[in-house]
Write a structure and sequence with these properties.
alpha/beta; 5-stranded parallel β-sheet; 14 helices
């Protein structure tokens, strides 16, 4: 998405205050996606709510979604090699570990700001209500998908992993019904397979949740629940964000599923001890 294109298309509907916001966005360039609504309005010398109204006029539910789209465009314009060169240019002698730690801390700070308790609760409720859960992840996300499915299984949920959407996935998804859930893990580059996943979910009334970063924000299927973080365009591909969401989800399930998770965990521990004694 190019902000220039959107502004040009909406030029006849923008108020003088809107045009001030647009001017700031166009002037700042790469810095623009990382301004809060309040800061953007302040720099444009308009009312604090102007940036929010501006985002809605451009077709976004609110400013966070508009900001995420801007960040997604910034990342798409900068390839992996360019991002790596940018990060290498910031490293001094012996500073590699420090740079990585700082990047992860920034990602976690963004997570705290951008993924609300309400969205985590919504995903928790979907998992509790589902008879079956499928976890989709490829590339870097394959390991995360295995981890989430394992944790859900230990907590007493019928969870299976999808590492592709071929004939094996068709077998795994056979019998999925309305109210069941697909959780897709996405990092930076969204898979071209999401069209098939979205169509299956829509055709069968199955819920679809996306967990990750800009990849999830870029896909944004209609009706999907999204728990994702827009990270700075020169940051590394952090798996800490979806991993933290996964850990929070498992803990939230234990709090809210009426003892199902805890009973399954106790049963699992007893089975392990019995196996070790035999």
């Amino acid at each position: 998405m190019k902000i220039e294109t959107l502004i040009e298309a909406m030029s006849g509907r923008l108020t003088p205050s809107d045009r001030k916001i647009a001017e700031v966005l166009l002037t700042l360039g790469p810095e623009a996606p990382f301004l809060s609504a309040h800061e953007l309005s302040r720099r444009a010398r308009t009312h604090a709510s102007t940036a929010v109204r501006f985002a809605r006029k451009l077709g976004y539910p609110g400013y966070p979604e508009f900001q995420a789209a801007l960040r997604g465009a910034a990342v798409a314009a900068q390839g992996l090699a360019a991002r790596t060169r940018s990060r290498l240019g910031k490293i001094g002698p012996g500073d590699t570990l420090k740079l990585v730690i700082e990047g992860e801390m920034a990602a976690l700070e963004a997570l705290a700001e951008q993924v609300t308790a309400e969205r985590l609760d919504a995903l928790t409720r979907r998992i509790i209500a589902a008879r079956r859960i499928a976890v989709f992840g490829i590339g870097h996300c394959a390991v995360l998908a295995d981890f989430l499915a394992l944790r859900l299984g230990r907590s007493g949920y019928d969870a299976r992993v999808l590492h592709d959407l071929g004939w094996q996935a068709a077998d795994q998804l056979a019998g999925f019904q309305p109210g069941d859930e697909i959780v897709a893990l996405v990092l930076r580059q969204p898979s071209d397979r999401f069209d098939r996943l979205t169509k299956f979910a829509e055709a069968n009334g199955v819920g679809l949740s996306l967990v990750g970063d800009l990849g999830a924000l870029a896909v944004r299927p209609e009706g999907a629940l999204i728990l994702a973080v827009a990270q700075p365009s020169d940051s590394a591909q952090s798996i800490l964000v979806p991993l933290t969401i996964i850990n929070a989800l498992i803990l939230d399930l234990s709090r809210k599923d009426g003892g199902k998770s805890l009973k399954a965990l106790v049963s699992g521990e007893k089975a392990k001890k019995a196996l070790l004694r035999s």
